[in-house]
Structures
1.
Amino acid sequence: MKLWAGRFSKEVSKTTNDFNSSIRTDSRMYKEDIEGSIAHAAMLGMNGIITPEDADKIINGLKEIEKELTDGSLVIPPDSEDIHTFVEGELTSRIGDAGKRLHTARSRNDQVALDVRLYLRNECKTVREMLTKLIGVLADMGKKYSDAVMSGYTHLQRAQPVTFGHYMLAYAEMFLRDKERLDSAVLRLNRSPLGCGALAGTTYPIDRNKTAELLNMDDVCHNSLDGVSDRDFCIELSSVMSIIMVHLSRFSEEIILWCSHEFKYIELDDAFSTGSSIMPQKKNPDIAELVRGKSGRVFGDNMALLTVMKGIPLAYNKDMQEDKDAVFDSIDSVKACLTAFIPMIETMTVKRENLRAAAASGFINATDCADFLVSKGMPFRDAYKVTGGLVAYCIANSKTFETLTMDEYKNASGLFDDGVYEAVNLENCVTGRTSLGGPSPENVRKEAERVKKINV
Ligand code: ARG
């Protein structure tokens, strides 16, 4: 039986019911639906809108339903319209008239907006904990590999020396900002639409601040039309999820490159790699690839939400039922990715020798060679040109800055002296990069400590 059956002379068709139903998606919010209803019933009782006895009956009935749904003794029929209808119907079948009073001064429109907010608030906690874990792992690696010299890249061409620890902390910074974004989104999420009614509030003497307080929410939505009809908090959260996925997918791409035979910078643990059904030698970075791939679906969820919400008039429209599939999927995907990604990173082997060996070719100390000439008084632009000539000479003669003789240096510029060998030594190049935020091992260790301290 539908909640709204009174006006209709016959039951809806099965097709309509199946199409209209959102139970597959929203049954996961049963706890939040009940939490919201308990707060609402308590407030109705306090304000004399229903009797305290009815409020008690409702609250106890709801608690029982929650318990049974959680232990599996109560099962939601798959043809239910939605979670709100199911819970109210179940309650009424248990406690009779008191159950029918629960929906006084409330609509499913403010109810669903509340449930989604409460549900997402919990999900944000989980994602936050996972990010904290990941950032902690990266900070530890930052410290451990603070002196593991490697090449940094631009255009995927070897560029300047950094360390593996510095690299890990770059990602730690990104995930720290993701956490900030998550926290900020929760500020706007944690406001109660309960009491906005269908769209125009109510004539009953309700106390919206009370229900917000009972639900641990920071404020109420201050306009009833807005409270029931915006889903910007879903769009915002799925944007936050999308940015997390951008970061995870970039990191994944590096992992995939780094464990290829061409790089061999890292090796993934067997427990986090997969084989091939035909090529016995293969060890594939499937987790990283799948994370990279799932970014597409999370961006899709974000676009779906933007598009669903675009152009619909105030207030509630059924279009908005599509919000949950998209925002839930984006969060589910991020959680699944982090669950697999974190232990994969935590257990990978970093091949310091290979990082160092790759850094030795590719002239990543060319800037340092030019800087040496600058230290001898040559203007940087001229030093750049002289060094460029030396690079060309090295390529033609299979040499590096480390193996050029003093005569060869002197041919390029009389300003060179023995000090140049110190200047182009990769360890020195990295150690000297002490500018704030730079890759010197000392900086990196300090930043790793800072990351750990603020990663709460
Ligand atoms: N299942 C609906 C949703 O998810 C609940 C709100 C229904 N409200 C309505 N007026 N039909 O949006």
Note: DSSP finds 20 helices and six strands in the chain.
2.
Amino acid sequence: MKQRLVIGNWKMNGSLADNTLWAANFRHQLKSCALTGVEIGICPPFPYLSSMRPMLPSSIRLGAQDVSSECIGAFTGEVSINMLKELQCHYVIVGHSERRARMRETDATIAKKFKLVSLAGLTPVLCVGETQQERQQGETESVIIRQIQAVIDACGAGSLRGGVIAYEPVWAIGTGVSAELGDIRTTHALIREQLSANGLGPDDVALLYGGSLKPGNSEEIFSLPNVDGGLIGGASLKAGEFLDICLAARGTPHNRVTDIAQKYDN
Ligand code: 13P
């Protein structure tokens, strides 16, 4: 079985004090479980990237939540791909639905970001997903295909090799209600088909699910075909819950960290 991948997206949460506690709890709880066969990434907000690196075990990879579509220059408030590389980021999330909606990021801008990340040798995590309205109008398939095709058209299918696509239905994010297993299965199969039509096999691109993933539902979601792991928002803010999700990704029965080490959790 190929190595599973679990990435925590902290969004605009945390503080120096919170992050220090999170890292201490994570390291402590990690000692009580044999966590092998799972690749783990953490994406804190930009200002905390450099302070998080030495606090995390070296096996945990650092990621950024976004990147500028420009390389250098007069772009106030933006963060370039070279800066992220210098800060030892491995992953860069592009096209998160919160940025598509709030910052009006277009497929074209997202494809530009994707290209910069892959040219820099970092691993892009392309987020795709339909809104509630698009779902109700029966547009889920066409939205997902369009969002992925925009990257293929702009960057070439080869740029997706070694990359990550996260299917995050917008209506499932932060709601506590994840997508139905059948919906995740169908959409992940659709994405695999699209990738395969572009010459990309199952080992070329990791497919993650995101949207209200938590310790209670991660095992069944990770057992679905074509699901290689998860992109976790809210549940990644608690070290114990995040670790439980990472343990579920191993695919073997385990004792919950949150049951045996509750008192250490932040
Ligand atoms: P939640 O896990 O909080 O639903 O967020 C998912 C997400 O948006 C990760 O990028």
Note: The radius of gyration is 17 Å.
